[in-house]
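Field reference: sequence -> structure
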Amino acid sequence: MKSAGKCTALLAALMVVAALPLSASAAAAKVQQVGDLSARFITDFESLSGATVDSSAALSGNLAATGADYGVKSGYGADDGNAFVLGLGDASKVTEGLYSEATYNPLMDENAKMEGLSSGATDFIYYLNAGGEPEGSEAAMQIVIGEYDYDENGEPVMQANPSTGAEENAITYWMPADAVDTEYYTMADGSSEWVKHTGTSGSYVRVEAGFKGYVRIPLEMFDPVWSSRDVNGKWDLKTITRVSFYYGLYPRHEEAGYAIAIDNIGFVGDFKDVTEPTKDDGNSTTANGNNTTANGNNTTAGGDATNNPSTGESGKPVALSLFAVLGAAVIGGYMVRKRTHKQVKIG
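Structure field:
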């Protein structure tokens, strides 16, 4: 893998995604077990079968013109199901490597399941298939999660778009902290034990080549980035605007269209099943007979969502700043350690 510094420098190539409307409604995520943990998955990509970044508003990816390939393909996900696959479409165009971005936007996916995420979430989780990495390399990626920001009273935080003046939902962008004490965990297929990893130089989460299984990152290990702010000092998990994976693609990725694959994006925590409305009369039914309602509300008023920090000129490349926040925040009743980082100008 190329150095983290070189890949990070290529963040200047990111493009700004246009403002996107909020989905009219969100389905409730059912509780599933991952090892000894309860999880709610926003998506398992089954409803996006065959979708590509050119055919679905829920998917986006950069550098397609320079050899990258992104799409939902069968057989690469958990239990050989669908997954969002990153790879090279034309390896002949790639000489030194591409710092690629693959993004899933649940606001643009009518089948996304975001209700109930705010009730007890402690970790971010996803299924990773790194089988496209040849022996001797590793799968190293940066992860950015965007969510609408809410104040201490649970009201959406609004801000003026610098280009249009229109009021929009403020978004906090979270990224695993670049620190030696940042923790994350892996559980390979066929195992029931979580393996602890420590340290994310350049904010990279790293696993061995060929790994297939789950990766989870405690929410307290994330910091706000991209000059976004977190008004109430905690994850809100009411409206997720993006989940992005930044990954280096190189000539060593020989299988066409496949370097890594992402599946089962979601959160783990102390979850219970939530009620799901029926089509006809709005009465509730549950998978396990409980009558618990979700306390997550993904409907916000007064603005559209943007997928990157404001640029001042819609659709143009933006110079991003990674920054650190001092102090502490509260997530689910426990304190979040905030780390001090140097400010890095990208681009």
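Note: Residues 1-24, 280-347 have pLDDT under 50 and may be disordered.
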